[in-house]
Amino acid sequence: MGKGFQVVVVRDYDPSRDLKRVEELEKSCEVGSLLVDLMGDPLARIRQSPSFYMLVAEIDTEIVGMIRGTIKTVTRGGNALHDGNSPVISTTKLAFVSGLRVSPYYRRMGIGLKLVQRLEDWFRLNDAAYAYVQTENDNAASVKLFTEKSGYSKYRTPTFLVNPVFNHRVTVSRRVKIIKVDPSDAESIYRNRFSSTEFFPSDINSILTNKLSLGTFLAVPRGSDYVSGSLPGSWAVISIWNSKEVYKLQVQGTSRLKRTLAKTTRVLDGALPFLKIPSFPNLFKPFAMHFLYGIGGEGPQAAEMVEALCSHAHNIAKKSGCAVVAAEVGSCEPLRAGIPHWKALSPEDLWCLKRLRDDDDGVDWTKSTPGLSVFVDPRDL
User: Has domain 162-345 been given CATH number 1.20.120?
Assistant: First the structure.
């Protein structure tokens, strides 16, 4: 394939004629060591958002690149205090850049930059004030494209915490009582306790009632009761998103020795479950994941409550046939200690943010001071 002068056409994605070629491109583009299988629906990861869009880049009849984007309203960072205690909640229209792929045969031709610029045109047309992108900290090419060529600022450095699902059930602390709350109560908890958290989505109700949301679970001390609108001195909450129905992942490029060692741990865990051996899941064939979002809590036992909720989530994932449970939290998240994870499976992320237009109050979100927590929208995975 020659790389001389070739006309690159960027246009809207058309599922009736692009589906197979987009799937082929996705398979040729590993994301680090991960292969992503969208299970026949390239829009699956974005169609849960209020507004979404997908573009492809084409040379002749070959699709050589693609990009996706969404727009929603979220809580903006840098909220001032209006009475010395409670924050003034400022919202903004935020766009999200997702799923940028360029064929390995056509890289270093400016195709990625052209796709980003065209997507940003759609963002501006729909009145988005900011755009952000998530990438891995060590993905030098992606970081360079967005920060050096596209005007994005390095903004937050959350960690994607991944914990394997073992062949045995995990014991949930007997000191903790876990309650599944209905979506309306869950919405009240999130709006009352987290609406000032950075990136909190205004349409939280749409997420909680989505068919992919498996429920919201509240942890309280054993012996306590939960009454709608009233929480005890220590409590924690998580919600579970079923990524299994959206995409599957597969780890590539691992040595035979490592795969054999991982299999050995699974065999031992399956044969001797009472020993509770921490087994390494089979990530070398397509696997599914549950994502924990809306993690929060208060009180001296909050971290213990989060850990109990994560154990409960592990057992739900085991029953569903998932290989891992994951969560993403801010670098200063006070409840991070309660989230079990394997460091070897947990990459450091980088969120980059760009200002597309002025908000009415003139505040520049890209220059705000980080808060302790961020709200990670499961639709942005």
Answer: no
